[in-house]
């Protein structure tokens, strides 16, 4: 392999001598250079320009020294190919022009055509495949999380219309889950064919469901997605988003390699709830990045100490970075994760005579 591969090794639960680290939302507004680009272009305009999208993807690799890149894109991008118009509105998030609420609305959704409608994204991946020295993670939004935007029409706190459809019109709900499941499978297969080295499915808001509802209304679709991707050798990550700790025991039938944990679940508890079947990724509270460095390092150390008890740990945040995070602190944190984990892991290897 021509790139640093600790991230891929950790996804496969292989031994590493230093923990891999990357941050969800690592390309973003905490970086003044990114903010300059955003003065000229919107997120969607950046995504339309493969050279620029590749450059933005690479910015945190150079600046922070992280071990994986995440494609600069948004979970909403493939939705355009379903035939749904949307905008990403500043300080709000995705806004859908005509929300999807009835059986007819769901029926109208087209299968996505990646080559025709999303070739700019594949082109960005091809550029990155040539230029990166770390693995590229591409991603898709999970059906529940995408459905919540399509149905509500904008970000929601209660998911009231989403739940209304789920409970009142289960046939429409499952038809929508099927179509969005197909979207995720087609889209991620195309990413891997273009050079992505791992994929992550973001289910940021599924923690809004009770475990019993997750089991009935979402788990079958998630099982199908990972089952249909299981012939691909590239690691697959499922991130069940914020407040997902209680859902973890219900994920163990899903054929992912890695599960992302939010910051409310200690790493060892997460592993136990997942029956030790997966590598785990996480889970520093992103808001701690406003704290003094000594507090950040103490919490990072506690997470690493648990994470390093077994192979299969990737250091990350418990959710995405936010604009107020400090670039300097992120750099220091990355260096700290590398140096602290290297000293512990090399000592562990010496003791076991490896
Ligand atoms: O660096 C990276 O992680 C790669 C880029 C990335 C973006 N969105 C770019 C973006 C990724 C992985 C996403 C995923 C995404 N998008 C998720 C899942 C991850 C999560 O945070 O839970 C979700 C729920 C979305 C939908 C979305 N897009 C929201 C809720 C927002 C926030 C609105 C805001 O202004 O904060 C966006 C906009 C968005 N997507 C931004 C970025 C960098 C911020 C606005 C901008 O810079 O234009």
Automatic annotation (TrEMBL):
Pathway terms, separated by semicolons: Porphyrin-containing compound metabolism; protoporphyrin-IX biosynthesis; coproporphyrinogen-III from 5-aminolevulinate: step 4/4
Subcellular localization, as worded in the UniProt entry: Cytoplasm
Residues of the Uroporphyrinogen decarboxylase (URO-D) domain: 20-29, 137-153
Summary of subunit composition and partner proteins: Homodimer.
Designated gene of the protein: hemE
Annotated positions binding substrate: 25-29, 74, 149, 204, 319
Native organism: Paenibacillus pectinilyticus
Source species taxonomy: Bacteria, Bacillati, Bacillota, Bacilli, Bacillales
Catalytic activity annotation: uroporphyrinogen III + 4 H(+) = coproporphyrinogen III + 4 CO2
Key words, A-Z: Cytoplasm, Decarboxylase, Lyase, Porphyrin biosynthesis
Protein purpose: Catalyzes the decarboxylation of four acetate groups of uroporphyrinogen-III to yield coproporphyrinogen-III.
One Gene Ontology MF term: uroporphyrinogen decarboxylase activity
NCBIfam families found in the cross-reference section: hemE (TIGR01464)
Listed name of the protein: Uroporphyrinogen decarboxylase
EC code: 4.1.1.37
This protein's GO CC annotations: cytosol
ATP-binding as UniProt keyword: no
Pfam family, one: URO-D
Family: Belongs to the uroporphyrinogen decarboxylase family.
InterPro entries per UniProt: UROD/MetE-like_sf, Uroporphyrinogen_deCO2ase_HemE, Uroporphyrinogen_deCOase
